[in-house]
Amino acid sequence: MKNTSQDVRPLHVKEIFRADIQKLPDMVLFLEETLSSMGLSPTEIFDLQLAADEIFTNIASYAYGAEGGSVSIEVIRDATTVIITFTDSGMPFNPENLPPPDIGLDLSDRKIGGLGIYLARQLTDRLTYRRDDGKNILTIKKAISQPE
Amino acid sequence: MLEIETGMEEDIGIIRPSGRLDAASFTLLDAAFERLIGEGLRIIILDAGELLYTSSSGLRVLLSAQKRLKQTGGELRIAALRPEIDAVFTMTGLTSVFTIRESVSEALSG
């Protein structure tokens, strides 16, 4: 979906997904289409997709028990930034409490995991978390270049 | 979507993933490593030329394969990384953990 200048760009899109790894491809496709229709560059889309992938994967893996649940994803674009908010009603999970991985370690000392949220932080300008009314609300924000 | 081809060149295994490597697909790549390492191969090249995307789920598979191969005195060599994925390797400090080569033919010679 390429934009032309006559296109009306959606600036606010929200979608709800089952918090399930099997839904990851749908979530990625949703973001790709949404961000592309909002006029972002391929690199910006790649970075935001990857950050969102890591967050969605975390929620799908840890937020809910066997009964499962959902996650809502809201994308807002203004003139200079894109903000993506993930809301789930699962167990409290504050990524701000995670220790950053030591990426300078030798192979033998390196842990296999712990890179996901770190990557999400690296790929965006800000990652914030709050717990509100029994919900985890995680937001990523990235400055974007102006489309032509 | 991820598709995986495997092959051999002399006694070096080659794994060629194409598509997206993420939490929904990483088990396919993991199984390919499992099989080749199980067959006794000590050097494996990941031909990443058609790998369009990887999340940390994919990086975990590669780290874990490298650990296993190093224990046998072998290694995982990664060839033909696309720039976006190369950036992810740099961001996570993985460029020093793997032997990274421009092409499969370079990776074959060490």
Automatic annotation (TrEMBL), chain A:
One of its GO terms (molecular function) is protein serine/threonine kinase activity. Keywords: Kinase, Serine/threonine-protein kinase, Transferase. InterPro entries: Anti-sigma-factor_SerPK (IPR050267), HATPase_C_sf (IPR036890), HATPase_dom (IPR003594). CDD domains: HATPase_RsbW-like. Residues 17-142 form the Histidine kinase/HSP90-like ATPase domain. Transmembrane segments: none annotated. This is Histidine kinase/HSP90-like ATPase domain-containing protein.
UniProtKB/TrEMBL annotation, chain B:
GO terms for molecular function: anti-sigma factor antagonist activity. Residues 2-110 form the STAS domain. Pfam families: STAS. CDD domains: STAS_anti-anti-sigma_factors. Belongs to the anti-sigma-factor antagonist family. This is STAS domain-containing protein. The lineage of its organism: Archaea, Methanobacteriati, Methanobacteriota, Stenosarchaea group, Methanomicrobia.
